[in-house]
Amino acid sequence: MVDRLANSEANTRRISIVENCFGAAGQPLTIPGRVLIGEGVLTKLCRKKPKARQFFLFNDILVYGNIVIQKKKYNKQHIIPLENVTIDSIQDEGDLRNGWLIKTPTKSFAVYAATATEKSEWMNHINKCVSDLLSKSGKTPSNEHAAVWVPDSEATVCMRCQKAKFTPVNRRHHCRKCGFVVCGPCSEKRFLLPSQSSKPVRICDFCYDLLSTGEMTACQSTRSDSYNQSPKSSLNDVSDDDDDEDSSD
Question: Which portions of the chain have biased composition (kind: Acidic residues) (predicted)?
Answer without folding.
Answer: 238-249
